[in-house]
Fold:
Amino acid sequence: MTTKITNKNFSSVSNIGVSWQSVIVADGSTATTGVAGRGYFINTTSAAHTFTLPTIATAGDTISIKDYAGTFATNKLTIARNGHNIQGVANNSLIGTNRASVTLVYIDVTRGWEFVKESNVATLGQALFTSATGGTITTSGNFKIHSFTGDGCFVVSSLGNSPTVPTGGPSNVDYLVVAGGGGGGGSIGGGGGAGGYRTTFPSPGCNAGSFPITATTFPITVGAGGSGGGAPDIGGSGSNSIFSTITSAGGGRGGSYTIGVSGGSGGGGAGESNFAGGTGNTPPVSPPQGNNGGTTTGTACTGASGGGGAAAVGTNSPGPKAGRAGGAGSTNNITGSPVAYAGGGGGGSRTNEAPFGAAAGGTGGGGAGGNVTGGVAGTANTGGGGGGGNPGGAAAAGGKGIVIIRYKFQ
Structure:
C-alpha cells in the first residue's frame, strides 16, 4: 500500500518503503545519523541512544525506527532534530516505551518531520526543564535555588515544557523578594520598619512554581538597608529589591522626635511625645508586603515604638520609659530550610535604668533597640529593621535585603 503526500512544494511522494539496516547496538557514547529511505533497528539493552535526523531533508524523505530488544523504557531513544522541526516544534523527541516503532516523513520547513506511523508510543516529546545561572546556586531535591545577596542577573537559558510534555518541568518559578530594612531613629528613636516581603512560596501544584518566566536575562536588584540615625538625627529608609515585575519596597525609617516613615513595613514612632508609626504595605500590593510601625502615645520620658515586620505590626509605646519590640517577620522554606526574614527593629528606651532593658527586634533579623548602648543593626540579607537609639547613643542601620528564585530542574 502506498500513501501519497501532496504539498504545493512537491507533487507526490511514497511512504513506507524503506531499506532496513543492520541492528545498531547502543553504547552510550556513539550517536547514529539517519539517512532518508532507511529503517533502523536500535538495541538499547546496555545504554541509551541518540538518533540524529539528516542535516538536509527533502519533502517526502522517510525514516523508520524500531525498538529491537524492547528496552526503550529502560534506556530511552532521543531523536535529535538537527535543525529541523519535529511535528512543527523546535524540540527533540524522546521515546521511552518498550517495543516502540515510528515512521517519520519530512513535510516542509514549518512542520519539519512528522510521525505518520506510531506503535507503542506514549509521548514523542523530549522532557525539558528550566536551566539558569546567576547568584549562589544550591539544590533541594528536584529544585534549584538561586540566592542573590547583592545585585546581579538571573539568566534563563531554557524553559521546561510541561504541560506540552507531561514529563517535563514547568516554565514557572517561585520567588522571595525582600527589600532593605529601614534604619532606626536616633535619640530615643523608633525602630526601623522591615523591608517589604513578597513571595510565591509555597505555591500550588507541589511547589512547582507559579510565576511565569521567559528565556531571557532578568536583572536583580537587592536593596540596601537604611542608615541609622545619630543622636538626635533621623536615619534613612531601606532601598527596594526587584525581580522582574516584582518590587518590594524598602522599610520606613524610625522616627527621631518625629513620626515613623511609611514603607514596606512602617518605622516606629519616636519616644518623648505622641508620634505615630509609619504605614506598612506602602505602596500597596496584594498580599500585603508588610505592617505598620508602632505608635507612641505617652508623654515626656516615654520610650519609642517598634518598627513593623512582615507578619506583625510594631509594638506601640504607651510609656513610661522602655522602648517597645519590633514586629515579627515571616519564616520561609524556599531554600529548603526554614529562615525568618523581615523583622521590625526595636524602639529605643528613654533610660538605661532597671528594669527597662533593650527592646527586642522582631524575629527575622530585626535589631534590638538601644538602652545602655546604641541600637543593634538589622541582620544582613534578612531585610530586618535597625534598632532605635537610646538618649545618648546612635541608632542602627537596617539589614540588606535578598532575592531568592526557585524552580524545578529535574
Observations:
- The radius of gyration is 31 Å.
- DSSP finds one helix and 23 strands in the chain.
- Residues 204-207 form the longest helix (4 residues).
